[in-house]
């Protein structure tokens, strides 16, 4: 059964202390990143292909850290580098465990495009178990979200993977090269109709002076299968550039907003999940 879109909080949700973050005005999206994206699509030759994901572990930056394009094989690519002042790696790991447990937690992240979230009873029990390590409260879990990433509401199944499952070299996977990675296979279904759309999502989090940076990479049309990227869309099919563009702008909007309140929310919740 399809879950209804939620745009308002229930009276019970309004009673919770952190409901104030839902009613807080949305943060202004990072204007520098928005201006870059407004320049139009990037050169596909400068995209990081999923086979080369370990290049994210290099200490430098890529030539294009913010951009979007359609790749020659018909898949699409999105890259965004969001900065999180005052945020730690621990806060990021906590957030991806915490927000899955209630609709409101997902909605307050970005109320203009987040309309609900659900998880299985099994995953809920794992997240709530105090013996579960924080990263295991999202790695291996599946979030079912209702989200508008620029093209209208979609039902998206996000199956979170370990760094190893994403293809990272675990010998190199350590600080300071990386703080944490939030990665997943996604499959989305537009409520307006159309084919299901696969994607690989990777948020590569690295510590920087005064906070962390969120180097997001999306490969639309791909899934990770047995630690290797596989193009899932048929040859001859091309993902519309508008899809990649919408996701790029949405990414800046939602993470600019999260960055604006995550430190205070984390302090208020005292690192607790529930």
TrEMBL record:
MF terms (GO), sorted A to Z: hydrolase activity; metal ion binding
**Where does the record place the DAPG hydrolase PhiG domain?**
51-267
Which domain of life does the protein's organism represent?
Answer: Bacteria
Q: Which UniProt keywords apply?
A: Hydrolase, Metal-binding, Zinc
Alphabetical list of Pfam families matching this protein: DAPG_hydrolase
Q: Which cofactor does it need?
A: Zn(2+)
Q: Which family does it belong to?
A: Belongs to the DAPG/phloretin hydrolase family.
Write down what this protein is called.
Hydrolase
Q: Which organism is it from?
A: Clostridium estertheticum
The top of its lineage is: Bacteria, Bacillati, Bacillota, Clostridia, Eubacteriales
């Amino acid at each position: 059964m399809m879950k209804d879109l939620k745009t308002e909080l229930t009276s019970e949700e309004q009673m919770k202390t952190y409901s104030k973050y839902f009613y807080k005005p949305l943060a202004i999206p990072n204007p520098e990143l928005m201006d870059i994206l407004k320049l139009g699509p990037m050169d596909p030759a400068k995209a990081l292909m999923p086979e080369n994901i370990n290049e994210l572990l290099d200490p430098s930056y890529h030539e294009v850290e913010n951009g979007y394009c359609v790749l020659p094989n018909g898949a699409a690519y999105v890259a965004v580098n969001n900065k999180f002042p005052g945020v730690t790696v621990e806060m990021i790991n906590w957030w991806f465990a915490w927000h899955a447990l209630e609709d409101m937690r997902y909605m307050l992240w970005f109320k203009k495009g987040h309309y609900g979230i659900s998880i299985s009873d099994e995953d809920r029990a794992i997240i709530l178990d105090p013996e579960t390590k924080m990263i295991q409260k999202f790695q291996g879990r599946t979030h079912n979200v209702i989200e508008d990433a620029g093209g209208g509401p979609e039902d998206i199944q996000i199956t979170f993977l370990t760094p190893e499952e994403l293809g990272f070299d675990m010998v190199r996977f350590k600080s300071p090269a990386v703080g944490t990675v939030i990665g997943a296979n996604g499959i989305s279904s537009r409520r307006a109709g159309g084919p299901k759309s696969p994607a690989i999502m990777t948020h590569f989090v690295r510590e920087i002076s005064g906070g962390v940076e969120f180097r997001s990479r999306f490969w639309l049309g791909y899934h990770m299968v047995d630690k290797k990227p596989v193009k899932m869309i048929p040859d001859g099919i091309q993902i519309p550039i508008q899809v990649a563009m919408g996701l790029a702008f949405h990414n800046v909007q939602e993470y600019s907003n999260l960055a604006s309140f995550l430190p205070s929310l984390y302090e208020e919740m005292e690192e607790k999940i529930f």
